[in-house]
Amino acid sequence: MTAYEKDIALLQKIQRIAPNATRGDANTLRRASMTLSRWGELECGDGNEHASWSIERDEQTGIPHLCTYPHNGKMRRRRVPDRENGALSRVKKVCERLGLHYFYQTDPRGVAIYVDREPLTDSAYSNGIAVG
């Protein structure tokens, strides 16, 4: 399925609860959800035979860093763009305009964003529309 087809499929679902939604809204939500899924994967971390790495936020500033932990040597840390807050800002803007609520599900094994007319909770977010 192409990106265009995925946008249209999502748009048809969203228009059931927000008739004024556009393909641009669906595209923004879908892309933000993909960004957040990837962010979650990076927060969980990865590694190879030389090192392990993950995105970690500084406890005082909240600034994200890619932290690399070599199996032999000293940990390295470099600042990375905060794609999580950027994506959430875009989701919030679209949802406010459409009169929707959203839930950010941070487990990277599933869809990151769910939307609905009613507020979604951590125990019932899957009642909303999965943006994926």
From the N-terminal CA to the C-terminal CA, the straight-line distance is: 12 Å
Strand pairing plus helix content: what structural class? alpha+beta
Low-confidence runs of at least 5 consecutive residues: none
Can you give the helix content as a percent range?
25-40%
Please summarize the sheet with the most strands. 4 strands, antiparallel
Q: What is the CA-based Rg, rounded?
A: 17 Å
- Mean pLDDT rating: 95
Question: H/E element string?
Answer: HHEEEEHEEE
The count of β-strands is 7
Q: Give the strand line-up of the largest sheet.
A: 1-2-3-4
Count of alpha and pi helical runs: 3
Strand content: 15-25%
The outline comes out as elongated
Q: Secondary-structure blueprint of this entry?
A:
Layout (H helix, E strand, L loop, with lengths): L2 H12 L8 H22 L1 E2 L3 E7 L6 E7 L5 E4 L3 H16 L2 E4 L8 E4 L12 E3 L1
Antiparallel strand pairs: 1-2, 2-3, 3-4, 5-6, 6-7
Helix pairs in contact: 1-2, 2-3
